[in-house]
Amino acid sequence: MSSRSEQDFWRVLTHIAENMKTDEETEKLGLELGIPQYDIDGSRVANRHGIVYEGTFNMLKKWSRLQHQETSLRILRQALERVGRIDLCESMDRGESTSSIPDVAETESSALKNHREELDKLKDYLQNYRQIECINNDKARPEVVHIGLYGEKGSGKSALANSLKFAFTGTYDDCANEMPMHLEATRYKQRIRITEHIHIIDSREMRDVDVRQISDDIIPQICGKRGVDDHNRVTGGIVIHCPVFVWNFAKPSFCPQEAMTEFIINLDSAVLDHYGRHLMVAIIHEKELQPREDFPAVSALLPKDHVWMLKNYTLDNHEHNDEKNIAILKFLKKCVNVGERNIDFEMEKRNEKELSWYHS
Ligand SMILES: Nc1nc2c(ncn2[C@@H]2O[C@H](COP(=O)(O)OP(=O)(O)OP(=O)(O)O)[C@@H](O)[C@H]2O)c(=O)[nH]1
Ligand SMILES: [Mg+2]
After folding, report:
1. Considering the domain boundaries, does residue 26 fall inside one?
2. Which pLDDT belongs to residue 231?
3. Is 122 inside a domain boundary?
4. 43 plus 138 within the same structural domain
5. What distance in angstroms lies between residue 246's CA and the mean position of ligand 2's atoms?
6. What is the pLDDT of residue 292?
7. SUPFAM superfamilies attached here (predicted)?
8. Range of the domain at 76
9. Same domain for 88 and 153?
10. Which of 116, 111, 169, 160 is nearest to 331 (CA)?
11. In a shared domain, residues 176 and 241
C-alpha cells in the first residue's frame, strides 16, 4: 500500500476519533464494531492523558488490524450510520479514504517513528526544564522542583521513581531501592535526581491509611517540617512542590478500596488547602483496565489530568518500551508543571505576607 493511501486511512480514523462528542458515543461506536469493553474503557482513560482523542484513535487502529482490508471501511460506515454519525462518513466520501487498510509493517514503522519523535520531544523538554524566574535570577525561588511520592507499603513508590529515571535516561538503575521480593522497604527519604532541576523524593511507607496521618505526618512532610534521615532520626525535611499519591490498584492491599478512596480524597483536600491545587495520583496497574466497575472511584472525584494510570518498570522486568516511556514522561511533565504552579502559589503567599508586614 502506498504511503499516500496509508496516510488517508489514518486521516479517516483521526477524523472520526476527533469528532466523537462524548464517551458514550465512542462506546456505542466501539460496541457496534465489536470492540471488547476493556479496549473501549482503556481508550477512555488514554483520552484523558495527552491528546484527547488519542485513546479513541488507538482503539480504532487496533480494531482495523483485525479486519479484512476490503471490508473495513464498509463496516466502519455501517457502524457510524447505526450510531447516528453518518456525517463522519464525509471524510471517506471526499476521497480521503482508501479501499483497503494499511500494511501492518508500514504502519508499525511509522508508529515507531512517531513514538520516537514524541519521546525525544518530552526528553528535550525535561532536560532543558528550568523555571523561568530562576533564569531571570530570582534568588528567592527554589531552583529544583521536588516531586514527593507517598503511599502504602509496597505500593510501588520506589519502582515508580526508578521508572521515571529509566524512562528519561534509558538506563535501568535501582537508584530508589525498590523492595526486592517484598522483603525490604524504603526506610528513609531518598532523592532521585532526574535532571539538575527535577528531583523525585521517595518516602518511606505510610504506617496505615488513618486520615489522622494526613495532618500529623504527610502535610508536615510536604511543608518540609518533617523527614526521616538515614540514621532513622526525625529531622527537618525537604519541601515537596508536587505531592503524588501512589496506589497499586491491582495488588491486594491491607486497606479496602472504599477506605483508600476516602483517604485519598481527604489528602487531596488537605493539599488543595495548602497549595490551592489538587494532589496528583498515580494508580499503578499491571494489565489493561478491565470493565468499568473496576475503575477506581477517585478517577471520577479528582480532575481528570490529576489521576494517571501507569505501569512501572521493575527490577525483574525493565525491557524498554516506547509507549510506556511516553506515558511515564508525560506524567513527569505534568508533575513538574504542577510543582511549578505550586511554587508560584507559595511565592505569592510569601510576597503578600511581606507586603502586609511592610504596611503594618
Ligand atoms: N508487576 C509489577 N510489580 C510492581 C510494580 N510496581 C512495583 N512492583 C513490585 O512491588 C514491590 C514493591 O514495590 P516498591 O517500589 O518497593 O514499593 P514501595 O512503595 O517503594 O514500598 P515501601 O518502600 O515499603 O513503602 C516490588 O517487588 C516491585 O517490584 C508494577 O507496576 N508491576
Ligand atoms: Mg520504597
Report:
1. yes
2. 59
3. no
4. no
5. 11
6. 46
7. DEATH domain (SSF47986), P-loop containing nucleoside triphosphate hydrolases (SSF52540)
8. 3-102
9. no
10. 160
11. yes
The ranges of the chain with pLDDT < 50 are 96-100, 290-292
- Residue 96 per-residue DSSP state: I
**Ligand 1 pocket mutation pick from 152, 155, 217, 246 by most atoms within 8 angstroms of CB:** 155
Beta bridge partners of 190: 202
- For residue 173 the three cell numbers come to 538503575
48 and 180 belong to one structural domain: no
CA nearest ligand 1 atom 14, residue: 156
Please report the pLDDT score of residue 263 as a whole number: 93
Give the pLDDT of residue 291: 41
Question: Grid coordinates representing 145?
Answer: 522542583
- When divided into structural domains, the chain yields a total of 2
d(CA 88, CA 32): 15
Cα 159 to middle of ligand 1, angstroms: 5
pTM: 0.70
SS3 state at 42: helix
317 and 230 in a common domain: yes
Please report the pLDDT score of residue 358 as a whole number.
65
315 Cβ inside 6 Å of ligand 1: yes
CATH of the domain at 70: 1.10.533.10
